[in-house]
Amino acid sequence: MPRLFRALIWVALSLLGAAAFAILALSRGETVSAAWVIVAAICTYVVAYRFYARFIATRVFGLDARRATPAERLSNGRDFVPTNKWVLFGHHFAAIAGAGPLVGPVLAAQFGFLPGTLWLVIGVVLGGAVQDFTILCCSVRRNGKSLGQMAREEINPLAGSTAMLAVLFIMIILLAVLALIVVNALKASPWGLFTIACTIPIALLMGWWMKSWRPGRIGEASLVGAVLLIAALVGGGWVASHPIGTAFTQSGTALTWMMMGYGFAASVLPVWMLLAPRDYLSTFLKIATIVVLAVAIMVILPPLRMPALTAFATLGEGPVFAGKFFPFVFITIACGAISGFHALVSSGTTPKMLSRETDARLIGYGGMLMESFVGVMAMIAACTLEPGVYFAMNTTPAALAGAADVLRQAGFVVTPDQMQALAAQVGEQTLIARTGGAPSLAVGIAHIFSGVSSALGGRAATALWYHFAIMFEALFILTTIDAGTRVGRFMLQEIVGHVWPRFGETSWYPSIVASSAVVVAGWGYFLYQGVVDPLGGINSLWPLFGISNQLLAAVALCVGTTILIKMGRARYSWVTLAPLAWIVTITMTAGWQKVFSADPKLGFLSHAASLAASTDPRASRLIFNDHLNTFVALLFMSVVALLVVVSIREWWLVLSQRKPAAVSEAPYVESRYAV
Amino acid sequence: MPSRDGGRGTREGALPLPTRIARVIRRIIGAPDYGAYLEHCRLAGHPPHLDERAYLNEFFASKGKGVRCC
């Protein structure tokens, strides 16, 4: 293809993307098709992948297809396995994509579709994808070392310990907030609870099948599991309309105890019994649903009913969560734009499976672009709902009353009859105050899927699609809770093991039980606090989750910057420094506002002060929670500050040649695959 | 000693299509694949160190230490 023609194609793509952004940004009042969001996102991804990712691969890291990767040099047929790049892309994507990119954009939709969409698309190409790609490149050059190991070796042991501590913090808050989403989705929902409860015996059956009865027959076990899962989904509708349904109609606090019991059991039971089979089921479901959702959105191209900007973006009194769009849209949408958690995968299994260094661009950068696209789809699903329905679903009655004037002025009104009709349509008792994001996302997905099934001449089956979406979300949230509780348990055993070696033995049962109980109690406490919170829990927990996740991103970007400087690539260090500066700015601003804001809806301390004279019997507990949240937020901020200072010191020492710029890369070995 | 295809599919092209599809799915979802391990040992020129049950035990143990993202 002639060079000029290729250049013209790239210019046309760039102009198309710019035009799509202009249409989204300049719309005021008129209906905008979701097609423009998709066009803007895809054009940006393609241009960024072609030019920016290529620049990082060739100029910044100098990736070399002739240099043997750890998968080749250390190949053992088990964890170090050279893998086809498209297969590894699927594996990496399945590991990084969870509930975060789905729920964050749904919550951020309270600001309108524009702020969240811009952050999802621009944030990923300049921040999230850069972080994942950078850490993958660094780990591949270091025999697949973990983020913590790289922080210890490249910065100093303090940074390594900070990284480990950050992972434990994020794990506790992450598990609490994800569990809260499931609890809010399953509260008073017999259909949903029955379906999710059935996944436990189904997973146990699959585990027994592939471990004991027919060892290694994953395909058979998964097929049986999938059939039983569909039966549980359909059977849930029957259960909900039967007197037995009362046994599956549970309150938030009852579900909290069930979740904690489940997390504890999943942590102490062998992996093959519950965790692994559930992981396989949820991975199948995740990939299939995301692909179908993408196709469905592109086929029906639903109109966006939410405006580009709502009054809450600048007023900061949103009923879903308090705070202005800066900095809270950047904290609320973490996983779809930048997620520190991904650095654990990019320095975990993926670098051990990469067959060629140059494939890192597709896996690291491309995989994160795909995750961002999932976030964009979630934003579209949320913004296709009537705004009145969206706010009624995502807001507690108290917060809704507080925002009633703004909602009325914006025309975001919905009657109780409309909400009741919608609840009946999806087979629920009520959809009012179903906070957490999952139910509103499920309604959005159900509308899109039922629109497609109707267009194809079938029944709309909205109730079935709604509960399918709930099952889809809950299943992989529970998978994260399984794995997260277990990893938290290992970390705690390792930490305590330094002072009591016996406790550090991961197979010693008293240690397993005690450490699992401590980790479950940790996230269970925050979960319970969220469930009983009159403001819905998401208001305080989701920002803490966002801050902790971005804290880990700061750790990863500090490691990446340090390695670039030590590689003699300081002139390119802006690639990681720019997103690091942004992450630190938003994390510190959000943390400061969450602690010290004078608005009791936003600031923990002012909220506690506002309750000081209250006669409400719950006041003392709420005040304690506010003080605990203050402590956690300040701890996160201190960790970020400490890490940045330690890193800057290291950069200064290297750049001023007071310390040798020694990198701990594995030696160059020519690849056997080189042609 | 790794195979020259490096997992990029040239050697696997010789396998029947259903086996190839099954292998791809297994790798994507992170499932154990004892057949692939035996193939690795054959190409590396050493006998398998693990029987199927030991391989599964080791695989599941290491899977329990992996993270799943948010």
Features:
A: 675 residues, mainly alpha, two-stranded antiparallel ribbon, 27 helices, B: 70 residues, 3 helices, 51% helix
Rg from Cα of chain A: 24 Å
Largest interface, chains and sizes: A-B, 66 and 43 residues
State the helical fraction of chain A.
over 70%
By DSSP, the count of extended strands of chain B is 0
| Helix percent band of chain B | 40-55%
The H-and-E topology of chain A, N to C, reads as HEHHHHHHHHHHHEHHHHHHHHHHHHHHH
- Measured between the Cα atoms of the first and last residue of chain B, the distance is 37 Å
Oligomer: heterodimer
Task: Please state the overall shape of chain B, judged from the principal axes of the Cα atoms.
Answer: flat
In angstroms, what is the radius of gyration of chain B? 13 Å
Strand order of the largest sheet of chain A: 1-2
Helix count, DSSP H or I runs of 4 or more residues of chain B: 3
Give the tally of β-strands of chain A.
2
Structural class of chain B: mainly alpha
Question: What is the string of SSEs of chain B from the N terminus onward?
Answer: HHH
Q: Which class do the helix and strand fractions of chain A yield?
A: mainly alpha
Strand content of chain A: under 5%
Q: Uncertain segments of chain B of ≥5 residues (pLDDT<50)?
A: 1-10
Characterise the protein shown here.
- The complex is a heterodimer of chains A (675) and B (70).
- Helix content of chain A is 71%, strand content 1%.
- With 675 residues, chain A is mainly α.
- The mean pLDDT of chain A is 92.
- Chain B has 70 residues and is an all-alpha fold.
- Helices cover 51% and strands 0% of the residues of chain B.
- Chain B contains 3 helices and no strands.
- The radius of gyration of chain B is 13 Å and the shape is flat.
- The model of chain B is unreliable at 1-10 (pLDDT under 50).
- Chains A and B meet through helix 4, helix 12, helix 15 and helix 22 of A and helix 1, helix 2 and helix 3 of B.
